Model the fold of this input.
Amino acid sequence: MLEQFTDRNTNGYIYYKYDPVPKTNWQKFCRIVKRSVKLELFVGLWIVFREMAKGKKNCHTTQYPLEKMPMPPRYRSVHRLLRLLESGSERCIGCGLCEKICISNCIRMDTGVDENGRKVVKDYSINFGRCIYCGLCAEVCPELAIVHTSEYEYAAEQRSYYGLKEDMLTPIDKFKEGHQEEFEGYGSVSADADKFIKKTPIAGDD
Ligand code: SF4
Ligand code: SF4
Done:
């Protein structure tokens, strides 16, 4: 099997024949003229001028930051905490699953009880400097409360860069203005999710 690779003389190899290296100044001059005045040079120049003449309409470069590339829906960037679309209540129930599963140990949360005796999330933060954007927190969240957005501009001046609850949660006044739509990015329910729901087995149920 290896023979066909080791025999370099009969296996269709093409050996490139180099031009002889010019020695005298006259030979060097002749080579420069030969390389410069070939028609290919003018063909190349013609293509460049033709594309330039088409102007901005022919521009294929994204004019960042004026233009931004749309990110695919599975892109995992900085997190957002969602509200229920019907009521505007916070979706997060403070179960702590995201905090437990986080392999970078960068989620911190604090829960308490409100005046009605309901559990509330008082504080929630993610250290984006530690986060590796693995997506486990969004995967494990039973309430679809934490998701990954496609906002890729999150450079920070410091290594520790905390996203606080008030940064990640849609403000209630903006929510009322319709700033939160059904989320379709990473962490949302897939379009065919219903197919995978299994009935809870109940004793005596046929
Ligand atoms: S994306 Fe991964 S590393 Fe970042 S907060 Fe979620 S679980 Fe932690
Ligand atoms: S897993 Fe979801 S509901 Fe539970 S604490 Fe985290 S964000 Fe809130």
